[in-house]
Amino acid sequence: MFKRRIVLCALAGALVFVDAARADDLVAIVQQALDHDAELGQARAAYEAAKQAVPIARAALLPQIAGGWGRSYNRIDMDGFPRQKYWQNGWMVAVTQPLFDWSKWTAYRQADFVVAQGAVDFAGAQQASILRAVRAYFDELAAEDEVKRAADYLAAIDAQLQQVRRKRAVGEVTLIDQREADTAREQAQLQQTDAQEELSVKRRALQQVTGRPFAALASLPPGFALPTLAEGEEAWVEQARSRGYEVQSKQLGWEIARFDSTKSRAANYPVVSVTGSYTPAGAASGYARPTTTTTGMLQIQIPLFSGGELQARVKQSLALEDKAKESYELASNQAEASARENFAKYLRERQRTDALGHLVQSAGDTLSATEVGFKVGTRTGNDVLRAIDALYTARRDLLRSRYAAVVAFLQLKADVATLSTDDIADMNSKLCCTVQTSSADVR
What we know:
13% strand, disordered C terminus
């Protein structure tokens, strides 16, 4: 029995260890964000509402059938005849079929554009939700890397401080060297504190995006190769100006506004329709016989005077059409600027990543040589501190450039409306390990 308890405890501990070691990857975080995002939920509901534009507009072109029931009081006064008063019950059915109503026909043509705009807005909201999750994910990873880098930096300063103190004890260095090392350690501690605070902020931000806690995240491997851009800047810019979700939405909005202008002018056109009704009415108290009224009519309505309302509505719709056109032009210009910015940023950060990788390697070699020189007395403690600072500053810049390049690449794909969950899955396949941070690193 005792051995069985030991086995069960060991198994439970192993399961806890496996669960703790399992990392949430980028696909899982993005999916959680899509399920939790309230803005995306609003866009989804708006799209469902936009889908009803077509059946609503189509219904206005179909026959309209109405029925009813009524009870009327009748009083008949005729010379030479006694007055007749009676109540009468009846029901009626009326049918109206529009034959020519340019306003309703225009609304039916406009409905397709309303549905298309709803679909584009929903796709854009989904892409924006993916981007928010991606930024929060890599911001958290960058914060974890910075905590680890700050801890390594502090450990390197501590090791150098111990050497300075030993040399100080035997008189090989001065008090100034020790104070410089103490100052460097205080600065390293401050960097570590700032990194821990930033990590707490980024973790809360990621948890707010997903709506649930997480244990660890899969990170970029050390030898992660940034993707190449197959096309030049102008190709990306042209696609952004024509395919960006915001551009498409504004372009559809412009088309919808043009239909609104057509509907406003159509209010001045005649409306032709066919109407028919069937109204049987029963007799009451013997005073009148049952009567049935059947009517059919070709009806033409022509607006003659509306107090200037129709003219005002035409002017209003034309002004709104100009507004929609300007919004489309603005969206195109903004899409171009964003594509150029992210294209240049990606190339810049990619080049910086390559250069900083070489810089980290050379700074490490310089630190090793400086430490040897310090041991033999050809370099001072301050030289070692500067070499340590140069190495870990280069490491910090390298980490930042890697994450900035990844986010810029995904943002560039979003500018041309091609960012999808497939891209996230492809990026996720390149992630591997988790960043090792202890619980003490997060407050």
